Amino acid sequence: MAKRLHSFTLNKCQKRVCIAKDRISQLPDEVLVHILSFLTVEEAANTSVLSRRWLSLWRYIDRLDFDATKPLDKVALQPKLQKRQMKKYLRWVSCTLQMCKGQRLDQFRVCFDLNKSARHEIDKWIEFAFSRNVQRLELDLLKGGDYIRTFENCYTFPAWLLGLGDSADSSSCIPHSNDLQILSSVKQNFKSLKVLLFKSVNVTGKVLEFFLHNCPFLETMVVHGSGTLVNLEVVGPSLKLRHLDIQYCYNVESLKICDTNLVTLRTSAGAKLLLKNVPMLVEVEISSAEFIHFLKDISSCLSCVISQLVVLHIHVLHSWRGRQESLRLHVYNKGCSPVKGI
């Protein structure tokens, strides 16, 4: 009797296993695509081997994060691999975009060591992102994934794509022969931008101001290592911009921020900074490689906001006995709760 009962129990368990259903695959396409969007592009594409149901789902994800900084560790040890890895990366991104079918993009991120030699491919990627009403456009092209490259070797943002007629790099202001037809559509589709990030990308103040005044949802702008940024004006109460980060742009001659609702500001152009009527500004970080007279230079430009700041970070590199040292001051206004250091 016990043996029969044991046999019945096993058969019952086996039957349960056999009738188990794949409930995840029964979810609507929109839900599955949303879930896949939280994976990396490579991980999402790998789900295509699960079944016919999953074969093409990944092609509709709305977050394309092409972060491939891990191979750069090998390149650091063997510089000869740099060109090979760059070609591999360019091929990977371009081939993936050809397979993507989504009509909208929440994020398009390029994160790899790319220079101006990849100009044609990157131009096409930006065009693709704008055609999908991208909300977060991030070009993180740092050398080795960590360092700002020399300005003359940086990729230059194609001003012609916005219909702007001039650029610091003349080769970037002339459209490719077969690209003129997409200009009108592109000039409409960039208006969904909320976040704009350029690292080791040459971009002019004219281009940045164009985005500021033509993107009604743009809240965050980050520019690191641009050699063509000379003058920038962030002016106008209608601007949505809340967070501005301008670092390592050593050719900046003036940075004017007036009549805006900016909340946080980070810049290494403190000596070139002009602030006026920024009532929402509560956090400022200023860095410089020059110690002499630096505090005196920035004291005048911060005088109109010092009483309203919740936190002020001053980061200065200076030499002492032949060594480079970092001086970092944290100033918190009384009555305000401390904010963690950056």
TrEMBL record:
Cited PROSITE patterns: FBOX
Species, as recorded: Solanum stoloniferum
Gene3D superfamilies: 1.20.1280.50, Ribonuclease Inhibitor
Positions of the F-box domain: 21-57
Protein name: F-box domain-containing protein
Superkingdom of the organism of origin: Eukaryota
SMART domains in alphabetical order: FBOX (SM00256)
SUPFAM superfamilies per UniProt: F-box domain, L domain-like
InterPro entries given in the database record: At1g61320/At1g61330-like, F-box-like_dom_sf, F-box_AtFBL13-like, F-box_dom, LRR_At1g61320_AtMIF1, LRR_dom_sf
CDD domains named among the record's database cross-references: F-box_AtFBL13-like
